[in-house]
Amino acid sequence: MSKRENGIASVAEATEKMELTSATEILHQWNLSLADGFADADNSSVIPDNSVFVELLNKWSNTAENLQRLILDEMIGRHYAKDKEEFIRMVQLMLTKLLDKVSLVCSCSSISINDKQPGLLTQELLKALHFIQEYFGTYFDKNERVPDALISFYKKEINTLSESLRIKLNSTGLMEQLLTETLHNHFVSSFENQNQPVTYRLHFYEKELLRELSKEVNPATDSIRKLLYYYNFNSSAFVIYEFDRLVNLLSAITTKSEKILMLRSELKIINQLPVRINYYFDDNMPSLKEQVSTWITEEIKYCEAGHFTPAANSTGTEPENKINTTLSVAKLGLLIRLLVVDKIVINRTVAPMLRTVAKTFTTLQREEISFGSLETKYHAPDKATIDVMKDMLHKWIHILSKL
Question: What is the pLDDT of residue 384?
């Protein structure tokens, strides 16, 4: 039986396995070594000795330098596309799991921040991941989640591109400020507000979109909107922006015929916009063009039936017909967000539902809730409000136990 130190395979045992010449076998053995170490540590309630970890990671770093060569050698030996795809996706999955485990080692053990070995190993693993992505992109699984070690890097990259775009759009004087802020707010919060793990596809999409937007020589509202339609930017924030834009256009028109004419003109323009095939921001929502054209079509039917879209601020719910609450706008927005995420509220589009909430509810401070304020708090809840809502939910659990 092999010797073990603090629940993890000894260095001699681990390095013995490094004689393997298969990239998948090496990654598999590394994953097993770390998994066994933490499993045994959990059983003995002892945190694995960081010196053992450091020595292991140091040995692995030397071997990791050859990972790219081993991957290339194995790819050359595979002649069928299906075999190549299965191999690349297996390596990708194993690299992702190993990167997460190395990050866990660094966070759960007493490894000093001055120890270079974890960083060196992480760099080599990331290089291998980038290698298969760069040279074997046809087989790379873009729907696979991004490892935690890359999230902060990707977030910084997107934030830098977004800030550069915002400065450029503001400098032209041809961009509507609301659209500029809508785009900026979306990109800077894209990693915080994801209910699902960040995938390579999502990151590649956002990075390419930002770069294409930044290429516009003299960016104006219309040209930016056309690009967003081309890339099927079906983010709820931009869909809401489009709905608000159309409502504002309708509010400035008084006659039925003019309203219908304007809506049909907008529908024609949108339907004729070119769109990149099989490209999207949110794969769980209909395309941008479908959501907006459906809204316009329904509005045309509404007008043709003899109804009119009311002008802005001309309608309101009588105070006695409103639901009065002691919530703030931030808490109300987050509460509605929870109902949507849990699929208790299942409206296909968020904007009309939020408008109804804004018209129907009051908060502790305000009789009239601003749709824009509610929409902002819905999509970007702050940490303080989330913490308060957690306390509220705990209170509800206590109340339920007494019912």
Answer: 78
- From the list 175, 308, 289, the residue with the least C-alpha distance to 232 is 289
333-378 pLDDT, tens digit each: 999 999 988 889 988 788 888 888 988 898 877 777 877 778 888 8
Does 108 reside within a domain? yes
Give the separation between CA 56 and CA 52, rounded to whole angstroms: 6
- Does 277 reside within a domain? no
Tens-place pLDDT, residues 132-166: 988 998 999 999 988 888 888 888 888 899 999 98
Paired with 362 in beta bridges are 324
Work out whether the CA dihedral 90, 93, 95, 97 comes out positive or negative: negative
Domain that holds residue 259: 235-272+282-315
What is d(CA 55, CA 50) in angstroms, rounded to the nearest whole number?
9
As for how many domains the chain has, the answer is: 4
Banded model confidence at residue 49, pLDDT cuts 50, 70, 90? low
CA distances from 169 to 158, 179, 185 (A): 16, 10, 14
Give the amino acid at 360: T
- Rounded Cα distance between 318 and 338, Å, is 27
Looking at 87, 107, 141, the residue that finishes a domain is 141
- Determine the distance from the C-alpha atom of residue 389 to the mean position of all C-alpha atoms in its chain, rounded to a whole number: 22
Enter the pTM of the model: 0.63
Helices 67-76, 81-108: crossing angle, 10 deg rounding:
160
Concatenated DSSP letters of 118-150: HHHHHHHHHHHHHHHHHH-TTTS-TTSBPPHHH
